[in-house]
Amino acid sequence: xxxxxxxxxxxxxxxxxxxxxxxxxxxxxxxxxxxxxxxxxxxxxxxxxxxxxxxxxxxxxxxxxxxxxxxxxxxxxxxxxxxxxxxxxxxxxxxxxxxxxxxxxxxxxxxxxxxxxxxxxxxxxxxxxxxxxxxxxxxxxxxxxxxxxxxxxxxxxxxxxxxxxxxxxxxxxxxxxxxxxxxxxxxxxxxxxxxxxxxxxxxxxxxxxxxxxxxxxxxxxxxxxxxxxxxxxxxxxxxxxxxxxxxxxxxxxxxxxxxxxxxxxxxxxxxxxxxxxxxxxxxxxxxxxxxxxxxxxxxxxxxxxxxxxxxxxxxxxxxxxxxxxxxxxxxxxxxxxxxxxxxxxxxxxxxxxxxxxxxxxxxxxxxxxxxxxxxxxxxxxxxxxxxxxxxxxxxxxxxxxxxxxxxxxxxxxxxxxxxxxxxxxxxxxxxxxxxxxxxxxxxxxxxxxxxxxxxxxxxxxxxxxxxxxxxxxxxxx
Length: 477
Known about the structure:
Elements: H1 3-12, E1 16-21, H2 27-35, E2 37-44, H3 47-57, E3 60-63, H4 64-67, H5 74-79, E4 89-92, H6 100-111, E5 122-125, H7 149-158, E6 162-168, H8 183-192, E7 201-203, H9 208-211, E8 212-214, E9 225-233, H10 234-238, H11 261-265, H12 289-299, H13 334-340, H14 349-358, E10 365-366, E11 369-373, H15 374-377, E12 388-389, H16 403-406, E13 407-408, H17 418-425, H18 448-454, H19 458-471
Parallel strand pairs: 1-2, 1-5, 2-4, 3-4, 5-6, 12-13
Antiparallel strand pairs: 6-9, 7-9, 8-9, 10-11
Helix pairs in contact: 2-19, 6-7, 17-18
């Protein structure tokens, strides 16, 4: 490891380094940094998501499309990133095209890490979850099922000490091509633990009740469930390196109650439809200790004890004590406004329809919207996860990439803003989300809602990261 990188780690209180595959906008990166783990290389293919990661973490961007050109300039382009540096590097492109030689050369020439004698501590990755998700198509034999192989490939290439694989709960039940339920999960576990390929790894656990974590148990104001598989290199495992999954910090049997929606977003200024609010008014006092901890972490203007939580130095001139970004009210059409007016606090679109039907009002004019009857403003299919008001006294429902259509503000007649979604995911307010506010879902240019909803909650990543810091030996800095 080169001296400049060691100096940065010492100055900024980092003890471990990692590679961040399928990085998304950087949720895992943020949580890792809070715990003292510095991601050196990230890989992400979505354009706007790369911009978000790079802008929020002061990372350089290497575009694979430039490297793959056949005009003879590709080697010169690659060499730009082979010079000594302490900055993280985001490789923008298809992970299948990121070859082993490139990763080894970047580690050696950029960071002074020789994977034979020294290596990164953790390779992490959350391969796209659509084929595993209960909400997705769950197509048997989906090509995305095998994207996790890249995590194994790069982990073995760099001889990493530990591997972290994140995915959705639906992976537990995903069948293989023969229809055997749960076979995909067992196949992934068995692939991690192959002993005929070196280096080999041992899973910390494959028990579902151990590897499945709830975000709200770790201070995230959201009832999100994700599975995390952790593998330790076999030689380290034999030497006694043991990974222990983090103990819940919040909930009925923990030291603190759950962080609620009110704790998480109650301090944000009200916004109207299409209104973009860029000024934050600091709270004079907090309602409770949960809100105090959470808001201090989100604002980042003073260090939270035990965490590298201050605003990154490269953003100090952009983000001030009163700055706020991505807090813009959606521009709902009149029919959607009429629909939202029917949904009472702590209720949902489906419940509103049932209430109006029982009252015999479906063919009456919507109060305040004479252009429509109640029946006209409801869609033909009443999906249970769409248009649900957040409950102020509880953690949020799961924030997904479709959260614009799913989560409503507790009291205002609108969907949540990107900043409110980010708060519910535990992204700090200094985070610089790039790209359009709203874009056709599935477009290569991900909008802000989709980026936020697809990410790993930073506080959940932080909980996992602290367990890595506890079990892996730190670098000699």
